[in-house]
Amino acid sequence: MPPSSAAQANPRPIKISCRNLWKVYGSPLRRVQTPGLAKGSEAFARQLRESGRIPALVDVSFEVQEGEIFVIMGLSGSGKSTLIRCLTRLIDAEFGEVRLDGKDLLSVSPRELIEIRRHKMGMVFQNFGLMPHLTVLGNVAYPLKLQGLPRAEREARARQMIELVSLDGRENAFPHQLSGGQQQRVGIARSLAVEPDLWFLDEPFSALDPMIRRQMQDEFLDLQQRLHKTIVFITHDIAEACRLADRIAILRDGRVVQIGSPADLILRPADDYVADFTADVSPAAVLRLGDIAMPDDAEAGAREVDGDRTVESLLNDIATGATGFTVRPKGKYGGGQLSAARVLRILGQHGRQDNDTGR
Ligand SMILES: Nc1ncnc2c1ncn2[C@@H]1O[C@H](COP(=O)(O)OP(=O)(O)OP(=O)(O)O)[C@@H](O)[C@H]1O
Q1: pTM, rounded to two decimals
Q2: What reaction(s) does this enzyme catalyze (predicted)?
Q3: Is the CB of 79 inside a 6 Å radius of any atom of ligand 1?
Q4: In the CATH hierarchy, which top-level class contains the domain 283-351?
């Protein structure tokens, strides 16, 4: 029996969802109610391509729970940006539905939509999108100005956000005086200033060099521990996806190939395409003990370890003779028993040939 996580056992309320979403570029299609579309989706996508159109999203459905980090992962051209634009209604899908807190987002008025974007959604982009003529303080306070907050109030809130991303002392700097990582921290502070329920991040760390990128990922996880936002995070980097995600949706040619936790993708890939992706990550660094503990494992030992620890963190103990562990549930990770033999078997099945740590 596969181990199950506590997150699956106790689903939280759905913050945002989409169902049977299609976005088609090219000559316009009439938006119609097509209940049968999903069933014939492959044939319909082919028809669209043959008519010279680009089906950028093909029958996409998923739900994001409150407080979850939901990562959308795919190669260039797979439809990630199109999807985030449809979820925020920057563009409109031809078919399907998007619901925010249960409300049909495709039926709200333009005015209501602006209010939702200003008050409920935060967005961070790869290119930072800062205003060069405004200081750090001015940039972070800007969305609050759009909300109509008085100056003293918006500056006070902006200062709090600047402190949250550890940029206090740089309030009066202009974007060009900051490093890439610092500029992205300003972008993050600005998007958080409106205290969004739903936080969209579109490849936020892709422009940063690998060391800074990893540091920003750590800071992002640290922020999320404190803020508990609902997050839709886009990346083309599977290692980043596995580090950050509660669940990952893998997109290929506009279609969702698999949705699952990093462990699901590594241990139970839906097809060779997903398996090829996850071959690029180190299972020891991604898998947690709760992901692979079993209800019963005869060889497991009495030593207690927490379910949220990485498999990597046990390797020393195994190398020095530990034969097994009792795994305690921790956070969203379940507990159980885990033998050293099982750990080594799983790493043997899913390990890579090279020395890359996959982080
Ligand atoms: N405005 C547009 N008009 C026509 N085709 C488009 C448009 N925008 C995107 N596409 C096409 O839709 C498909 C999905 O593009 P999208 O930008 O969503 O992919 P992506 O996964 O975000 O790629 P990247 O990682 O390179 O940003 C691609 O085939 C792209 O060429």
Answers
A1: 0.88
A2: a quaternary ammonium(out) + ATP + H2O = a quaternary ammonium(in) + ADP + phosphate + H(+)
A3: yes
A4: alpha beta
